[in-house]
Amino acid sequence: MLTEATVIAPEGHGYPHTPGIYTQEQIDAWKPVVEAVKAKGTVFFLQLWHTGRASHQDYQPNGKAPMSSSALAASGTVYTPKGAKEYPVPRAMTTEEIARVVDEFRQAARNSLDAGFDGVEIHSANGYILDQFLKESVNKRTDQYGGSIANRCRFTLEVVDAVAAEVGGDRVGIRISPFGGFLDADDSHPYALHTYLLEELNKRDIAYVHFIEPRDPSSKGVGSPLAVHDWQHKEHNLDVFRHAYKGTFIAAGGHTRNSGIEALEKNHADLICYGRIYLANPDLVHRFAIDAPLNKYDRDTFYIQDQVVGYTDYPSLDEVENSKKA
Ligand SMILES: Cc1cc2nc3c(=O)[nH]c(=O)nc-3n(C[C@H](O)[C@H](O)[C@H](O)COP(=O)(O)O)c2cc1C
């Protein structure tokens, strides 16, 4: 099981009310959560996140511009504590700042293990800081972190190396979105870019790679409607990556019970990740086992600030059945 992303450093914030893993108070606050989840017998990884330019001065220490690969703003608006604002022009990180963020990922991994997590997932997807270096639409650098594919992968690989050295490769996964386009992070050569990244990851013995499936072209952003899942007939699919990577391969995005079974049977992935239907079904594993009907997710509550509504108020199958009897 993975948690949602957790911010690794004060400059990594870009959304209201997101949890962190950098102060002792935050580490201690995680402990009972981790204990309760692990008491259910699960392996529990924490996703480590730095938003980079997907932030705003209002979130940043001393009101500075947020950081990114290049001084290029994302399009659209960011939700700040003072309402929606245009994404600001970020500042291009210096090599010293890159080294500092690498070390923040390392420290966050250590903190995660101190909080009791079994491992961490490095968030290198969805247009956040590491993806802002991977993708050519965002990364306009001319130093050793920009230009060639090898240079654009350097920051991500430095983070993987630092985190793996700190906690052991078997406690490290990485999330990658070759086709997303979320937060304007796009690349004209997604296969070449991510195949290179995977060849480098093959040299490192990490727990898994976690790839996000291409989306239906008519859908917009995370959580928007997906067509019936049909990865084999999309313009793009993950098979090149699945075959390029020698270790454990997770696929995420739009899967149902049946598409997950089919994907595993066809060797499309080793594991399937479920997002929205897991959120709406706390007993998803049990429901899958007996092929029970699922609660429908409520899109309107996906990113709201409530601590319960949309997060822990979906009923289990027993609760649904008991409420029918009552
Ligand atoms: C409410 C919500 C929160 C999410 N938070 C994260 C996150 O923190 N990190 C991440 O990598 N993806 C996040 N996602 C994306 C999901 O992990 C997943 O990739 C997406 O929902 C597609 O999979 P699905 O079709 O099984 O839902 C989130 C999605 C939703 C709906």
Automatic annotation (TrEMBL):
The keyword Repeat does not apply. Its cofactor is FMN. Coiled coil: none annotated. One of its GO terms (cellular component) is cytosol. It holds the Pfam family Oxidored_FMN. Keywords: Flavoprotein, FMN, Oxidoreductase. One of its GO terms (molecular function) is oxidoreductase activity, acting on the CH-CH group of donors, NAD or NADP as acceptor. Residues 1-291 form the NADH:flavin oxidoreductase/NADH oxidase N-terminal domain. Belongs to the NADH:flavin oxidoreductase/NADH oxidase family. This is NADH:flavin oxidoreductase/NADH oxidase N-terminal domain-containing protein. It comes from Coccomyxa viridis.
